[in-house]
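Follow-up to my earlier ticket, as requested here are the two runs.
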Amino acid sequence: MTDIQEFDARALKVTQAVVDRVAADRLDRPTPCGDWTLGQLLAHMTGQNHGFAFAAGGELHGREVWRDRPVGDDPGEEFAASAAAVVAAFGAEGVPEREFWLPEVRGGQWFPAVQAVGFHLVDYVVHGWDVAASIGVGIEFDADVLAAALTVAEAVPTGASREREGAAFAPALDVPAEASVLDRILLLLGRDPNWSAPGRTG
């Protein structure tokens, strides 16, 4: 297993611990992720895990394997199944030497495994924080995981593509010199680290 695969698995474990705290009656809560409710965000996260698991096989496939998968009455269990699937797929023999077909990135392209897993890593650091912010709890990733995710976040293209409807990330926000590594990742990818759900004081 490469470092990036290990970092990704550890990020998913932290995110899983937060998703496990989501009750089915909280799925209508707002999130920092655009106009998505928590249920919509978790459906996206679960679907993306399955999509990346398919992509790790190194075969061409359509967008249907990336479809959102609603989490139903047990968000933690359904997300856990998708997380286990993608960790197993990323850890399979020969994966580091493959290319991944990602139909949703730059109009559909092949990417080296290390780069593709890096995309997944930064997604699940940011989305893990999204879920935590939505339900008003903290989240902590290991420093080396965040350092790897920051490298990916710094390489995400800026410009007009971030302003289009359906863009993966909003335009970057200003990053203060004193910002923590997690806050730097969030700001670079258009998130306000101080976001809180309407009606909450923090």
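Run two:
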Amino acid sequence: MDFIGSHEELRAVYKTPDASDVAVRKELGRLDGHCRSFIARSPFVLIGSSDLEGNADVTPKGDRPGFAEVLDDRTIAIPDRPGNNRLDTLENVVLNPAVGLLFVIPGMNETLRVSGDARVTVDAELRERMAVEGKPAISVLVVSVKTAYMHCAKAFMRSKLWKPEAWPDRASLPTLGQIFRDQLAVDGTAEQTDRRLDQAYKETLW
């Protein structure tokens, strides 16, 4: 299998967009009213980051719509809630602040893409402001926006992501307990593992 190894080889396959194309002009250097509105309605964001060796990670963050707060035209705050304490994203941004964000709104095929630099804060006032169920955020990821733009609908249309009739039968897929049983040889049955996970979800969602 041959692989493309240069910009010239890549652009021999894909044409270079003209500077006047919407695909180029749509990139903003700040968050305008539409970006702010989208973030305010989004309950879900994917965060891409990497460490100094280039090991990449994408982490999902989900909460009530508007959980990510626009502090100003170039700053977004994303709260961190209880999790597994791997801290993949937070560990990465402490070393390498570059991040990419993809905000999603259920049922909407277009997404909002943001890139910038992130820092982690445990500022008490900000953590308290982003509290849910009386529980402050553990920490907050503060992203300084470099670029923001709307991404077109093609990927969601092709995948039929929001079309229930295209979804697989959940019963045909293994549970996380079954997966952990096979991959990690955890103690107990898959059903016992699933019950422990369900209980943990109920007790530590926020």
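The only thing I checked on run two: The two ends are 47 Å apart (CA to CA). Let me know what else you need.
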